[in-house]
User: What shape does this take?
Amino acid sequence: MKLILASDLSFLLKYGYNLTGISKSEMKIGYVTTASKVVRDKTFFEKVEKTISENGYDFEKIDIEGKSKNEILNFFKNKNVIHIEGGNTFYLLKAIRESGFAEILKELLSEGKVYIGTSAGSYVMCPTIEVSDWNDETVDRFGVSDFTALNYVPFVLKVHYKDEMAEIVKEKIKILKYPLRILRDGQGILVENDKYAFIGDEEVKLD
Assistant: This one.
């Protein structure tokens, strides 16, 4: 099983896509857009998609909300990468639960497909998504009160980290049940079975 958990696209362009072990000419990305469909300003995500395309990567979009298991499996049949993008993590988790995507993902990963998560797509692979709104208490949770996520890694993540967040993160760490790993934009973690490799500039450690 190979997972690439990133803060943003810049990490993928510099390191992440190469870490898949799949050549650009052979890579076929199934790009899950569900998390971004509820954000107010979609301009950022439009730019992300344009940048992926301009860099020569072959991707096809899917919104998993309302899709059946067979529809999702058929979509990914000819893909070798599953990329879940950023947006609203709560909405994404809700859609994952309602579509049965958690079980579908297990099946896809067992076939050897590589998982890439950016932002919300990384958060949902943790044991819980509770960190995802640490810096914005106004985030719409779409009725999600159980923050239990997919639990593919034994830690939670804080993505898009900036130095000015240090004090609030230090306070929040005190109530965390799980270890926290911090990703600035441009950083990521490669997961290969039970091995975890941090990639990018020096990893932030907060006590």
The two ends are 31 Å apart (CA to CA). The chain has a mean pLDDT of 95. The chain is about 30% helix and 20% strand. The helical segments are 9-19, 43-54, 69-76, 89-99, 101-110, 120-123, 166-173.
